[in-house]
Write a structure and sequence with these properties.
7 strands; 289 residues; 10 helices; Glycerol-3-phosphate (1)-acyltransferase; alpha/beta
């Protein structure tokens, strides 16, 4: 019995980054991909059919929730997400975050412009009313803000990941405020609700899309993984952005609420993120020095 417990404790959570996928892993990857395709084939036509008679559609939310489960995540939601007129601000570990949050609340997202041209993924993102933005388009900031305002009015809720990249579940990067310009001043009636995503323990670090790993390789690792894993989403207490004038103050308040919730889940303080992230001008403390 003791030896079995030791094996369980020492078992890796899944294929290491760069490690070859086993034949059993490939079987799981193919079966999960087929499941995702079937869900897509069912939900997309129903979405377009529904849109002919109603403005909104429940099918993107349904597909994302099904997809989240097919990828191995067992979603558990804590707290109550606001249903409309809300700007969700969340930490970010993986593309699975989008499946989880979209499946839990039906929210739309702010995403990098590069995603809009990605095969299949870009098309799916548009179906879910994603707002695409570009860090490089300094001249188009006003247009991006207008599109965000329209999205808030049109979609009722929208989610941003202000870290600007994905981390390892044990770190929390400084929040970038560029996409919070839409809250200067806040549109009438809009609330901000911080959100914590927690995969738990070592699985979060393993799932994290970090370092030089390609997105396709990360997806293959996750889809090839044996078994399921827990993904808990904590909708924290919302606040009125008018009480925190300016996007920097709003970002600071959201982070100040997410940080202690994350540290409570970890049971220890967060650690510095170990990877350089040039697009958001982040370097680990020793490299920054």
């Amino acid at each position: 019995m003791a030896s079995n417990l030791a094996v369980t404790r020492n078992r890796t959570v899944g294929p290491d980054r760069g490690a070859p996928i086993s034949w059993a892993g490939w079987v799981r990857l193919v079966l999960r991909s087929i499941g995702l395709l079937i869900a897509l084939v069912i939900c997309v036509p129903l979405h377009y059919a529904y849109r002919t008679v109603h403005y909104g559609s429940p099918f993107p939310k349904l597909f994302l929730r099904i997809a989240c489960r097919l990828c191995g995540a067992r979603l558990r939601v804590h707290g109550v997400p606001l249903k409309r007129d809300v700007f969700f601000i969340a930490n970010h570990l993986s593309w699975l975050d989008i499946l989880a949050l979209g499946g839990a609340s039906g929210t739309a997202f702010v995403a990098k412009a590069e995603l809009s041209v990605a095969p299949v993924v870009g098309w799916l993102a548009r179906i879910n009313r994603t707002v695409f933005v570009s860090r490089e388009d300094r001249m188009g900031v006003a247009d991006q803000i207008n599109r965000l305002r329209e999205a808030l009015a049109d979609n009722w809720s929208i989610t941003v990941f202000p870290e600007g990249t994905t981390t390892d579940g044990k770190s929390l990067l400084p929040f970038k405020t560029s996409m919070l310009r839409v809250l200067e001043p806040p549109p009438t009636g809009i609330m901000v609700q911080p959100v914590l995503l927690d995969y738990g323990g070592d699985i979060g670090e393993w799932i994290g899309w970090i370092g030089t790993e390609a997105g396709v390789d990360n997806a293959k690792r996750i889809l090839a993984r044996r078994g399921s894993f827990k993904l808990e989403v904590f909708y924290l207490e919302p606040f009125d952005p008018r009480d925190f004038p300016g996007r920097k103050a709003i970002a600071a308040e959201a982070r100040a609420r997410i940080l202690p919730a994350l540290e409570a889940r970890l049971g220890q303080p967060v650690r510095p993120f170990a990877h350089v992230v040039s697009p958001v001008r982040y370097a680990p403390p020793e490299e920054a020095a």
